[in-house]
Peroxidase family protein (Streptomyces hesseae), 955 residues
Amino acid sequence: MHEARQYERYVGGSPETERLHTERLVHDLMRVQIKVRKRSGAADIARTFHAKAVLGVENARLTFHDELPGDLRAGFARPGAEYPVIVRLSNASGARRPDFSPDLRGAALRVQTGPDEAHDLLMTSFPVSHARTAYEFVAFAKAMAGADSMPRKAFALFVKLPLTVGRPTAARMRRNVHAGTRHKVRSLALETYWSRGAVLWGAAGPVRFLLRPAPDASPAPSPSRTDPDHLRHELARRLGAADIIFELCVQRYVDSGRTPIEDGAVEWKESDTPVIPVATLTIPRQDVDAATARATASRIEQLAFNPWNTTEDFRPLGNLNRARKAAYEASSALRLGHRFVTEEPRRNAVLGVPLRAGFRALNRFVPWHRLPTRLGLLNLVALRQVLRRDNLIDTEIHQAPPETQPVPAPIDERLRLERSYDGTYNDLSVPKMGAVGATFGRNLPPVFRPDLFDSPNPVTVSKRLLHRDAFIPARSLNILAAAWIQFQVHDWVNHRRYPTGTKSVEVPLPPGVTWRNSPGGPLENVMRFAENQGVHPPGGLAPPALFADVASHWWDGSEVYGGDRQIAMSLREPGGGAALRLEDGHLPLGPDGIPLTGFRESWWLGLSVMHTVFAREHNAVCEALRQEYPHLDQNRVYHTARLVVSALIAKIHTVEWTPAILATEAIEIGLRTNWQGPPKNWLTQLGLWLFEAHSLTGIPETLPDHHAAPYSLTEDFVTVYRMHPLIPDDFEIVDHRFGHRIDTLDFNAVQGAAAEPLIRKTGLANALYSLGTAHPGAITLNNYPRALQAFERDGEVIDLSVVDLVRTRRRGVPRYNDFRSGLHKPRIRRFEELSSDPETVARLKDVYRTVDEIDTMVGLFAENPPKGFGFSDTAFRIFILMASRRLQSDRFLTVDFRPEVYTPLGMDWIERNGMTSVLLRHCPELASLLPRTASAFAPWRPVLPTRNNSEDGGG
């Protein structure tokens, strides 16, 4: 790498700046591919360039000369060495045009030098590129996309191109293209092909390479003017009679003037750097029209060539080459259906600008939630567009500059039909996107201020603003809603902690306050708890504000199924059965008394209920699949059931839980639109057609779209889902048949190892009924569960409210005023603007010196929410962005949400079921108690106790 950098200069002055620039160009190139397909009428997406193959063979040989110069002996380039080669010869255009059309020609070689090592050599039949840089290259491609007639070509070359790159550059590009394409090609066996860009050649430094025909190659007839495939036919005749021989040659780097690295439009002249033959390429005599040869050619068309499929000894050099890595990866991923481009209709792009501006002006006076329903929905569409544009920040560590790689292995076909255990290969073009270990993204730029970690003191903040003096209920919900969101969060997010006692956060306590940091431990004047493990990028951040997710970011049911293969297999029936292990309908216990399931932390009765229900649901789906499709093996049954249950969970969250906690007509319509499309009324349909046509169907009928950044959940998302106030301090266990109280327990009596004996003793139906008829806490200030403010976990005692505050600060999430401002809400200037409650305002003033110091969680809890909302409008803005993103990015909830993957039975199961039907499948005795016209997360009908039994019920 050091050898390469001495020759290179990066766009924008740094590898990272150039990477971002290249990323934008890559998106433009993919749109070119889409446009070419549309204009050409092709059924499939072709390669961005070199779309039409003329020859594809796997049995060529590359043999290095015995007299190879000493300094050119590097890596696989050894005297006398011989390697098998895949050869693809092609026309250079991005459209499949007739062979007699003016065009350049291309050669792609894959030299297999070992079991795990190959080198892709890519060349074109003209010594220089029409473009100096990647920017010019893409500008030319955009201008020429779809220019399939002479008038369109002329307009592209003489009008569109000069407007983009300037007249002098456009003129030079036209000259190069004309010079390269005016040559009449008789045979691809008689063409010379140049790399045009430089590569490193071991200790010899940069070279350009070329492939030229052997001196004794037989001539070819004049090119046909009528046969669209005359070049293929000529090669077929030639190979039917004899081998085709080429010489592989190199030209050495001299200096930056005569042999530039960064300028692809300058020829390395033979007078400055003589051509040195180094190897012979032999394509053996064969019948390319035989069935086996046609099958071979078809396989080669599925390959993705890339000059970066090589080793560091042969690293590509220069801006054009550096851009090619990302460009070729994206192009091939799009062509092979591993990556997708969602095209925005022009009317949406044009009309969206005044729409967003209009609502931005209107919202200064009237917030979206006070508008009429349909206008409010359109306001939310505009807001989501702004958030997608401005509030998706990529935090993944990318290669900058790019690095060489082995040829990527073919994707395991099973991964097209099943979720991986760790979330890899959801996006087939970027296998690690969203997987276990992927970093949390950002919705707002981080504000990392170690000097403010303890200011104001988080213990003081907790005691004054979070501590529950009296329970404040959320009367529109039941406790199942609290259990559900924790069940979901455990699927989505989990920061890795250092083992207790190894690396801790120390929070100084206010004067006169002490704390026991371990059960039975001494009183101390600091509060201590395990630190999160950060991600240290190369060259890194010190201290880091970047963290990885121990769970996968996808909605894949990992809380039920586990986040790696070992855990997942251990939860299945012995012998690799499809069903999950249950003991008389309950989860098996681990040695610590906590049930064995995908996620076992922070366990309590509500989680036990959710995990039990959905483990049973998985097994019910498995049984239905076995009955309907007896030919399916156990592994396919398991993975299909997992897909079905995970999608059902996503549906329940989208169309049941969220409308329950955000109980407004606009939100219910919006969320149902996310899943199943908008209401069938002409006004709503017209509005979406004009401004966001992609919303005319439910997200499952769209293509995956990551919008402005690779998919991940975010630190800001984690912050707004801190909903611990939902947990009550005590629980009444009630018999669902007679309404009699069985027991009244505090939180400690229903959490940890105590939860599972309780649910087994009382029964699942009674546990569900007890939680379904009781209210959770409201998400507001001074309503934090008391038990969680002295909570034992992993050998430490923590105040979880303090931990929540400290974690948010140390992860760089902006304080509340910056947070709401970054989400396009006006900043507050006075404490009175945050809350209408005088006592709350007084407490805020007592703790914080200015409104800009208010902690994010405190501000979100204090904010007066819209009518019907269970949490603040500021938190809702993260939700509106990320709720649709969790569906939209997921291959299994979009393009692969189809019967071929889920089976027809699986699709029907998801369509017909919801939380109520799931509960009744496993506890049919609750049928009369669930709400008739609301979701299962609304309060259930309580059964009145009968007179002839004692008040306590006897259990």
Notes: The radius of gyration is 32 Å. Residues 949-955 have pLDDT under 50 and may be disordered. The longest strand covers residues 53-64. The longest helix spans residues 634-661.
